[in-house]
Amino acid sequence: MTMFPVIIIVLIILGIEFITGIIANGLMIIVNFSEWIRNRELTCCDIILTNLSISRFFLQCTIIINNILFQLPEGIDEWCAMLRPSTAFWMFLNTLNLWFATLLSVFYCVKIANFSQPLFLWLKQRISGLVPQLLMGSFLVSLVTCFPSINAIESKYIDHSMNNLSGNTTQECQHKFDLSSGFFILSMLGYCTPFIIFIISSMLLITSLWKHSKRMEKTTSSSRDTITEAHVRAIKGLITFIFFYISYFVALLMFLLQLSTISSYYLWSVIMSAYPSGHSIILILDNLKLKRVAVRALHYAGCRLRDAVS
Questions:
Q1: Are 106 and 135 a contacting pair, CB within 8 Å?
Q2: Which of 17, 136, 167, 218 suits 278 as a labelling partner, its CA being 20 to 30 A distant?
Q3: Cβ contacts of residue 267 below 8 Å, gap of 6+?
Q4: Could you say which protein family the record assigns here (predicted)?
Q5: For residue 39, with 0-12 CB atoms within 10 Å meaning exposed, 13-18 middle and 19 or more buried, which class applies?
């Protein structure tokens, strides 16, 4: 009974995060899709953003559905049977989301950073043409590493009626991960690999900014050049990106490795749901095209609300 108010508060927060994420990611999908219809083409950055938004849109839906299923009465075998495939699909969307977000970070790093290494220069010239293949590769890697892990998810339907002294019927649907399973280890590699790549690309971008700033200090130019401004804009977005990414990754590991208690599970759920909505808002604010559309949409919604009130 003491957990009931906490559950209500968590569900309200998850609902707010869900609505925010759906609106933010839906806005990016609609804007980029409309531009593709008009011009029959999108920039590489917009292609990555669109795929990232689509994956986050479905991820938000899966998170809220799983949390609803988790709160439903445990007396129906069908609900317990649904948790296993829905959890596997959630793991797939998590991995896909991490890969797409990492690909966006790598794209920014390659386009903005300046290094003289031959491999980096080769990648800088060809990254735009490799975007479709990288997106498809991310999808296939996520599929290979996560869907087989459904065999590592153990679902148990437990009837506690015999042990209940009050005579009330209590049932519980439990599902946990077999941490010793090779499928689960493969899935964990699917989570850790994009995280490591993300950290490396972030460090490279920060290093590039530091080296460029040192070079600019030796020149007589007093105004910041366009390269420095591009670095600074990318770093500003990257700081919030790192915060959301690391907090999401830690919460995800705590949940999958079953290191959390029942009470902390709700905290991890709020953190995991905050990432796909909060970072999408940051992406909109950093994109002039998306920001302009969002401001117009908010202005229109505000006018409609004032008209309804009056």
A1: no
A2: 136
A3: 251, 260
A4: Belongs to the G-protein coupled receptor T2R family.
A5: exposed
Pair of tokens at residue 172: 């519980």
**CA–CA separation, 32 and 44 (whole Å):** 11
Of the CA atoms within 13 Å of residue 271, those in its CB half-sphere come to 18
Q: Are 134 and 107 in contact (CB under 8 A)?
A: no
Q: Which spans in 113-225 are helix H?
A: 118-146, 182-217
Burial classification of residue 240, based on how many CB atoms lie within 10 Å of its CB (0-12 exposed, 13-18 middle, 19 or more buried): middle
Q: Which of 152, 39, 246 is nearest to 254 (CA)?
A: 246
In this structure, what token pair is assigned to residue 205?
């971008």
pLDDT per residue rounded down to tens, the chain (310 residues):
455 677 778 778 888 888 888 888 988 898 888 888 888 888 888 899 899 999 988 888 887 777 676 665 554 556 666 767 777 788 888 889 889 989 988 888 888 777 778 888 888 888 888 899 999 999 999 888 877 766 666 554 444 444 444 444 444 455 555 555 666 677 777 778 888 898 888 888 788 777 766 766 666 454 455 666 665 666 666 777 788 878 887 887 777 666 555 556 677 778 888 888 888 888 888 878 888 888 888 877 777 777 777 6
pTM of the model as a whole: 0.80
E strand segments, the chain: 153-159, 171-177
CATH number for the domain spanning 171: value is 1.20.1070.10
Cα angle for residues 17, 143, 141 (degrees, 5° grid): 100
How many independent structural domains does the chain possess? 1
Amino acid found at 203: M
**Within 13 A of 102's CA, how many CA atoms are on the CB side?**
25
